[in-house]
Design a protein that fits this description.
136 residues, alpha+beta, five-stranded mixed beta sheet, two-stranded antiparallel sheet, 24% strand, globular
Length: 136
């Protein structure tokens, strides 16, 4: 199987890459991704990836941590991924990684607040409350 780490070794430890350098590796000729601040050169794995090359290419040059974890990779897949590590993201650049945007859901209609307990509030859409009162 392809990979860049020495068998059982971690020759990549202490090798740091700047985010700007990682971002340059976003082509099929050189594909790097970041997972948990580790840099992976997955260029030779693109054709072998069970989920297809495209899902990896979409993450090329950037942070793939959330997508990697969302898929729920097997223990074998995680072990295989370790063979592609070439270094770590420089500590000064770790804060530069974009955090996923929080998804907030709001309704267009007015909201009413109801207290369920002394320190607990629940937001309920006004039209829902109106319908509940009508039902009684």
């Amino acid at each position: 199987m392809v990979g860049s780490s020495e068998a059982g070794g971690e020759s990549w430890r202490g090798r740091y890459y700047r985010l700007e350098e990682v971002q340059k590796h976003n082509t099929s000729q050189s594909t790097w991704i970041i997972i948990h601040h580790r840099i992976y050169d997955i260029t030779k794995f693109l054709d072998e990836h069970p989920g297809g090359e495209e899902v990896l290419r979409e993450q090329a040059g950037g942070d793939a941590t959330e997508n990697f974890e969302d898929v729920g990779h097997s223990t074998d897949a995680r072990a295989l991924s370790e063979t592609f590590i070439i270094g770590e993201l420089h500590p000064d650049d770790r804060a530069k990684l974009q955090k996923p945007a929080e998804t907030l859901i709001t309704t267009v209609q007015s909201q009413s607040r109801y207290s369920m307990a002394p320190d607990v509030e629940l937001e309920v859409p006004y039209d829902y409350v109106s319908e509940a009162w009508k039902a009684e």
